[in-house]
Design brief:
The structure is a single chain. By secondary structure, the chain is α+β, with helices and mostly antiparallel strands. About 35% of the residues lie in helices and about 20% in strands. The chain has two domains: about 40 residues; about 90 residues, 2-Layer Sandwich (Alpha-Beta Plaits), CATH 3.30.70. It has six helices and six strands. The strands form two sheets. A four-stranded antiparallel beta sheet has the order 2-3-1-4. A two-stranded antiparallel ribbon has the order 5-6. Helix 2 crosses helix 3. The N and C termini lie far apart (about 55 Å).
């Protein structure tokens, strides 16, 4: 099962016959296993990684570090849930270290992101501090190198 998940995580478009051949199992077995993993919510979603800059779409992505005062009985969960329900929020992680939540958001401009942080995030009860970091350029995401041109990086040897 772990091997199947790793193959799908790397390339979710692999056809069942190819997965079956790679795993040495029947197509029926692999298909049933994928259905079970989806039903049990082990496979949550299938995503496509897009180079939006190359497409021509301008968005601003920011990482927001948030410090919180945990709530009685629920800790950080209730505040995290409130935050992850915003459409602008792409990712939320509970963290160890100098801040409690890491939130990744997207907006149309720096002003939109700043406004979201100032009016929506920082005003939530329990949020004590936010720190924003704007992403300037992606190099690698989810194990995929962004914009790699497969350049020949060998040194030129001349006689």
């Amino acid at each position: 099962m772990k091997e199947l998940l790793e193959l799908l995580e790397h390339d979710a478009r692999r056809p069942i016959p190819e997965l079956a051949a790679m795993l040495g199992r029947s197509e029926y077995e692999v298909e049933q296993e994928v259905k079970r993993l989806e039903k049990d919510k082990i496979i949550l979603s299938y995503n496509t990684l897009i180079d939006w800059e190359k497409f021509g779409s301008d968005t601003v992505t920011a990482i927001i570090e948030i410090n919180l005062t945990p709530q009685r009985e629920v800790g950080f969960d209730a505040i995290a849930e409130r935050i992850y329900r915003f459409d602008e929020v792409r990712t939320v992680y509970l963290m160890s270290g100098s801040f409690d939540l890491m939130v990744i958001i997207e907006g149309k401009s720096l002003k939109d992101v700043a406004n979201f942080v100032a009016t929506r995030l920082s005003t939530i009860d329990g949020v004590t501090q936010t720190r924003s970091h704007f992403m300037l350029k992606p190099y690698k995401k989810d194990g995929v190198i962004i914009g790699d041109q497969e350049k020949d990086r060998r040194l030129v040897v001349s006689p």
